[in-house]
Every structure is written in C-alpha cells, then in structure tokens.
Amino acid sequence: MIVDAHCHLQLPIYGVTPDPSRWKFTKLLMWSYELLGYRNPLWRGEPPEPARMLISLENQMRLSMGSREKLLHYMDKNGIDYSVVLPIAPFVSSRDYLEACAGQHRLIPFATAYPGEGWVDELHDAMKGGCQGLKIHPILQRIPPDDPFYFHLLEEFRRYGKPVIAHTGEFDYYIVKDGYASYGDVRRLEKLIAAFPDVPFILGHMGLYYPERAIELARRYSQVYLETSFQRAAVVRRALMVAGRERVLLGSDWPESDSKYPLAIARKVAGNDRDLFRRITGGNLLALLGSQANPL
Ligand SMILES: [Zn+2]
C-alpha cells in the first residue's frame, strides 16, 4: 500500500484560480528537474533570478490543476493508494477539505488554521470532523515560524496526538517577490519543535534547497520526520542514514510535482529492501496517524 504524505486539492494562492481544463503538468524547468530525478547540475541552493521566475510561473500553472478528480486520476495512474491532502488557510479552510474528501476514503485530510475570530473552535471542529493532522505554511500564511500564533495553535492541537506538517524551504510563490520566502528557512522552526516534543513534526520538502538543515533537525529532535518531495536519491539516502528508516516519508507535493518521480526515487533508494520501501511509502506515515486513521 502506497501513501503520498503531501498533496493539495486546490490551493488558489492570490491571483491563481483552479483551471478545470488543465490535466497535464507543465513541461518547462520543473519537468527537467523531475526527469533528472531532482538532481540539478546547474546551481546549488536557491536558483538564480531568471530560473526562479520560471519556476514560480510554472508552479502557478501547476497549482491551477489541483482538484479531487485530477488527484485521484494521478493516484490511479501512478499506483498510489492514499494521499494526505493539505489545505492552507486563508486560501481554503479545513472544512473545504473535509467536504472535498467526503465519501472518498483514499484522501486523508489535514486541518489548517489562521488568526481571526473563531479559529480555535474551527480547529477543534475540523479535528473532530475527521482531519488527521495539521498543515502550517509560514510563507503563504505570512506568519513567521516563531510567531506566538503557531505556539498557541500547537497548544490547542497537541491533545489529538496527530502530526503537524510544515512547509520548509525558501520559495517565492509569485513571479514578483513578496518578501516572505525567508519564512521557509527550516532552521526558524526549531523553537516550535523544541517547545512541543510530544508533537510529531513532518518537514515538508525536507528543507527544499537546503536539505542538510532539515536533516540536522531530525538528528537533534526525535519527533522530526523528513518528507521527500523535490529531493534527489542521494539526499533521501542521507536522510535515512541520519533519521533512520522510521522517519522518512514519501511526498510529492502534487500538483506541484508528478508523484511518479518521488515514487521512483523511493524505489531506487530502497532497492531490494522491501521493509524499507514499505516504511517510506506509507508504513511510517500510517504508524504516525495511529490506528484510527489506518485504512487497513
Ligand atoms: Zn504543501
């Protein structure tokens, strides 16, 4: 059974609306990344400006593809049985995602929260309504990772014993820079992680351009998990070496990337080790979510 720990249904960031006619991934720079197994021969770390602009543009086009129908289509195509789907407030609410997943047990919704009247009640309603974890996204939410809001949020959330997944990695979502990319620096999450040792933290994209920083947090904090989207095989191997086979999770960030590529990397890294493959591609995540959520 294969589980993708990181997908989105629809994430209409400012200025981007879902495009019902788009069913295919763009084939620009992101595609070449994917074909190369996310190995990048051209630069290290964050991309130079022209490449960054092209990646943002392509990212917006791909985000416009998100919908339940298309996610299920790609899950069938790529052999993925279950997907964790992540809303990001204020663009969408936990309730939107619960409704979008209703009657479809292959989609596992997480919750989202954003400052404003009633957010605490909304969070508890979402968790009681079936959300299996929480997503936080400092860049898109424009809230610094060490802001008191996230501490308050986790104080409310910790009682459920479920994981939180955080976007990590400096990334500009818009072609014009909005100045919030640095909120993605994975090191800025450390205070939050240290304050809640009982809350499992999944580092989405494993720090993106600086995976060694995310891996270092996993080395220092035993409740930190590393999610593989956009990471090449060598990085996933390094993550396994440091964090162990229980704390690495397959993720694609669909529709920002086609899940067949991270799945191929998991297969390559696991080789003949069936136990390792089973753990990375679902076993570890289902163990984290607990028996209630376990579709088995
Ligand atoms: Zn995400």
Could you characterize what this model shows?
The chain is an alpha/beta fold and 296 residues long. It has one domain (3-19, 28-289): Metal-dependent hydrolases (TIM Barrel). Helices cover 40% and strands 10% of the residues. It has 12 helices and 8 strands. The protein has helices spanning 29-35, 49-63, 68-78, 94-101, 119-128, 138-141, 148-157, 190-195, 211-220, 233-243, 260-270, 274-289; strands at 3-7, 82-85, 107-109, 134-136, 164-167, 201-204, 224-227, 248-249. The strands form 2 sheets. A 5-stranded parallel β-sheet has the order 4-5-6-7-8. Helix 4 links the parallel strand 2 and strand 3. Helix 10 crosses helix 11 (260-270) and helix 11 crosses helix 12 (274-289). The longest helix has 16 residues, at 274-289. The radius of gyration is 17 Å and the shape is globular. It starts with a strand and ends in a 7-residue tail after the last helix. The protein binds zinc ion (ZN).
Keywords, separated by commas or semicolons:
296 residues; alpha/beta; TIM Barrel; 12 helices; binds zinc ion
Summed up:
By secondary structure, the chain is α/β, with parallel strands linked by helices. It contains twelve helices and eight strands.
What percent strand?
Answer: 5-15%
Order of helix and strand elements from N to C terminus: EHHHEHEHEHHEHEHEHEHH
Indicate how many domains the architecture comprises. Answer: 1
Low-pLDDT runs of 5+ residues are: none
Reading off the top of the CATH hierarchy, the class is best stated as: Alpha Beta
Major sheet strand order: 4-5-6-7-8
Number of strands: 8
Q: Classify the fold: give the CATH topology.
A: TIM Barrel
The radius of gyration computed from the alpha-carbon positions, rounded to a whole number of angstroms, is 17 Å
CATH superfamily: Metal-dependent hydrolases
CATH architectural designation: Alpha-Beta Barrel
Total DSSP helices: 12
Give the helix/strand class.
Answer: alpha/beta
Query: Residue share in helices?
Result: 40-55%
Multimer state = single chain
Choose one word for the global shape.
globular
What's the average pLDDT?
Answer: 96
Largest sheet: 5 strands, parallel
Attached small molecules: zinc ion
